[in-house]
Amino acid sequence: MKKICFVAAKSGGHIIPCLTLASQYKKKHSSIKITFISALNKLDYQLTQNHPAINKNFYIKLNNVPYKKFYKLPLFFFQLCWETLKTFLMFIGNRPEKIVSTGSYIAIPVICVGFILRIPIELWELNVVPGKAIKFLSRLATKINICFKETLNYLPNNKCELADYPINYNEQDKCPPLTCLENLNLTHNRKTIFILGGSQGSHELNESIKNLLKNNNDLTTKIQIIHQTGADNPETIKKWYQIYNIPSYVFAYQNNLSLMYNAADLIISRAGAGALAEIKFFEKKAIIIPLKTSYTDHQVSNAYALTKQFPDRFITLETTHHEKLSVILKNNLMF
Questions:
Q1: N or C: which end of the chain has fewer CB within 10 A?
Q2: Looking at the predicted structure, is the pLDDT value of residue 220 above 90?
Q3: Measured between alpha carbons, how far is 137 from 42 in angstroms, rounded to an integer?
Q4: What is the pLDDT of residue 287?
């Protein structure tokens, strides 16, 4: 019986697309046996435990790489060696025909064992700029799927193949905007803006929308809002819209956003690769505001790559300042 091992950990950006790939494999080959390897933490457990595509879960306990805390390196390398040994013993008794990974340093011991045992290794790099783990593991890979052609600048070209980002939607998920607006209890007489906060950087985006409404009263009679708030309290944000009599549908998080995508005239979003792929799939116009942090600015590269590919649909804005946002918003909604 065919067996495949999937590896992803530590963030929804790694785990969710890897689960999607596992589900797609399972749908095509119902008899396939899938082992999913992730990290021993709450997020990974919640996302992977009892997932219908997974036959067996395997959790690795490995702390973050202590780049600036050298005194923790001995513990890290001990954990790395121990988890590598455990993975080796598991594969000896339950050898997969292929290993698939979307990244994370948790994949390092798994991929290394796979390489030693000559198991084919398939990597997925979902962003323009590869993460450290994918860069390191690329030399061991049999095949690397990339979602942006610009990624060829960072990885061995002879192993790379351009592929669509693994999203959970298909053509049957597209439906008429009016039907979706009715299901969300929204009107067809206003322009609909979908604010897609995501799991990171949502608070700054939420505050920007609040300032936008304060300083642009002319907008309040012409728009309605669908708002994924992320970590912020949706009830608090809903009150903003009630103050300005703006119809709204506000929520913290939902797995299926097809109604929201279909209903939107314009989307304001961060530049996570998954969100961009979904916006692209539903063929919507979008203002992309990439998240930049002290340790990464990969979203900036994602945003500009998609803007270059679809200049008529995507606009990249590297600030959440309400004045610049209002100008672009009005121009794109044509009022």
A1: N
A2: no
A3: 26
A4: 92
